[in-house]
Design a protein that fits this description.
Strand content: 25-35%
Order of helices and strands: EHEEHEEHEHEEHEEEEHEEEEEHEEEH
Number of strands: 20
Shape: globular
Helix content: 10-25%
């Protein structure tokens, strides 16, 4: 159904396809500029089919990649601005502990970016880490660095707040309306299950469905769509790993993929700990039961918890799911279509885009209105990928 906003219209300045956190912030920035904007979402809202649902996400300055670290100051400011506009709390400061070997290059880069951007934190030896956080046992002698500014974003509440802000700026949000055809041109024509719309520019932020929309436009990007298990683990002593006990978020720089955790809060007595990878899955078949052989992520987490977090029961109490859309280098795609320059693509957020959505939305907005983006865009360009066979048109 169409949400509150401007009446149905067939002509807009910009159409945004996909009302997850990235598309919603893009539409919000456009509407704030007075652009006639239509935000389309294929599923009735709210839903849990994509990558933006759930109760919590980590926000942090600690990044090994400089191009993300330099965006985080503005991202924090824009989250704070949204909180003020919406009159709701979206962020809770908990701190973040990055765990890794002292010789790990990724750990060293995290330390350097924290220093470069004057982020308050603290270095821990193996011994001081265990003294400060007795619930963590550095099993292989890991050291740590803390980011005192990090914390937890309330994901569902944040998505609602930015969509509400978009509507208050006059934007039109149509949910339960699937895009069935896109015809490029000076004016882009978008056909949906309910109507036909036109716009001067189109922004595609369709998450794991991005390639399904791009293929008919002659573009196929090297995305992997992964089904991720979001696991919650029971505390042996209630509250030991909780926000009230000052237990931080953490990021363990394990190989081949990271493990991350958030203090118990959203489910009383349960700590959210996840493996930063999953199994390949078509988003249309996300809920198909996995074979027993496809469950190594749970086993990896059980082993990690047994060794590093002895105060947790090493058996998941709750398992939920979400989707990642990964690029080969886990950098985002924020770029114009190579052939149709008024079609903008925001995709491949690789499981770490939520915290950066206010800035991503601003950049996609700038691309769609023809402005010079606020940040260097080279890490996000499509041409960094080897040429793929173009889909038949």
């Amino acid at each position: 159904m169409a949400a509150a906003g401007k009446p149905y219209s067939s002509l807009y300045d910009t159409i945004v396809v996909g009302a997850g956190i990235q598309g919603s912030f893009t539409a919000y920035h456009l509407a704030q500029r007075g652009r006639e904007t239509l935000l389309l979402e294929q599923f009735p809202l709210p839903h849990s089919r994509g990558s933006s649902h759930g109760q919590s996400r980590i926000i942090r300055h600690a990044y090994p990649q400089e191009h993300y670290a330099q965006m985080m100051a503005e991202s924090y400011r824009l989250w704070e601005q949204l909180e003020a506009e919406a009159g709701v709390s979206l962020y809770r400061q908990t701190g973040l502990l990055v765990l890794g070997a002292n010789t790990n290059p990724e750990f060293q880069r995290c330390c350097r970016t924290l220093v470069k951007h004057d982020v308050p934190g603290e270095l821990f030896t193996t011994e001081s880490l265990h003294r400060r956080f007795p619930g963590i046992r550095p099993y292989h002698g890991e050291v740590g660095v803390s980011d005192h500014t990090a914390g937890v974003l309330s994901a569902d509440r944040a998505l609602w707040a930015v969509q509400d802000g978009f509507r208050r700026c006059g934007g039109a949000l149509h949910d339960g309306e699937k895009v069935t055809d896109i015809k490029p041109g000076v004016v882009v024509t978008v056909t949906t299950s309910r109507g036909v719309y036109q716009a001067k520019s189109l922004v595609i932020t369709a998450g794991p469905w991005a390639n399904k929309l791009l293929a008919p436009l002659g573009l196929l990007l090297p995305f992997q769509t992964l089904r991720i298990k979001v696991c919650y683990w029971k505390e042996k002593v209630p509250g030991a790993y909780g926000v009230s006990a000052n237990f931080p978020c953490f990021l363990a720089l394990c190989a081949p993929h990271h493990i991350y955790g958030l203090p118990s809060n959203e489910y009383p007595g349960l700590v959210k700990i996840c493996y930063h990878s999953g199994r390949l899955a078509d988003p249309e078949e996300r809920d198909r039961p996995a074979e027993a052989s496809a469950l190594p992520d749970i086993q990896i987490l059980q082993d990690f918890i047994s060794k590093y977090l002895p105060g947790l029961v090493p058996e998941p109490a709750v398992v939920e799911h979400c989707m990642y859309t990964n690029t080969p280098d886990e950098d985002f795609v924020l770029d114009r279509h190579p052939k149709f320059r008024n079609i903008i693509i925001g995709a491949g957020f690789s499981g770490h885009g939520f915290k950066l959505a206010p800035v991503v939305g601003k950049l996609l907005c700038q691309l769609s209105v023809g402005e010079e983006p606020s940040y260097a865009m080279e890490p996000f360009r499509i041409h960094r990928f080897p040429a793929l066979p173009a889909p038949a048109l």
